[in-house]
Amino acid sequence: MSAVTRAEYCVVACAEAWRGAGEILASPMGVIPSVGARLARRTFSPELLLTDGEALLVDPDGTVEGWLPYRLHLALVTGGRRHVMMGASQIDRYGNQNISCIGDWAKPVRQLLGVRGAPVNTLNNPTSYWVPRHSRRVFVEKVDMVCGVGYDRAAGARHHRIPRVVSDLGVFDFATPDRSMRLASLHPGVSVEQVREATAFELVVPPEVPYTREPTAAELRLIREVIDPDGARAREVAG
């Protein structure tokens, strides 16, 4: 079997966000988070619920398992029984996320998606983030607009939690006294210096930083032959 690619390390890192999650709704956004959620469901998180994005619950093959009308979807979203993995055009040291605009809100340099459901997601259920291209333009000192709510703004939010941020360079969490971002693992072939250079704020870096775990042979087979045989993951993260 050929060597593990960077994209496959990212898939496993995303899958780990749902380890031991139990019967909650996984809402992955993006190719690699979607492959990761399906991998988690097939392996270590068999109770995970997957949706077609409309009104159905499906298994990893797309077979319909149940009906999820919008009112029940909202009940899951607002009751902490969903774990979404969103993208981030900008994210800061406390996990505040921006997907709305670049520059001043009144006269932005660039208009993006808009706030969408980010505030509801982040205040009412666990939210992780996936960034396919780690750079100082994304990992910023201060986001231009707060869409997803970070730890410094979430006082009193009962279900607010940001389990992890996964990028093409590594995995990050907020396991620090002030809930600022910490480097949790490096993908093989990446150095701490590379991550620091690509981040516009000062990360918390432990004395010893482990590597992101390698997928098992069984997981690799599932990724390559069952879940993503067309290799869409490599179009999101090269190398």
Automatic annotation (TrEMBL):
Record-linked InterPro entries: CoA_trans_fam_I (IPR004165), NagB/RpiA_transferase-like (IPR037171)
Pfam families: CoA_trans
Entry's transmembrane regions: none
Molecular function terms, GO-annotated: CoA-transferase activity
SUPFAM superfamilies xrefs: NagB/RpiA/CoA transferase-like
Family per record: Belongs to the 3-oxoacid CoA-transferase subunit B family.
Protein name in the entry: CoA-transferase
Lineage, highest ranks first: Bacteria, Bacillati, Actinomycetota, Actinomycetes, Kitasatosporales
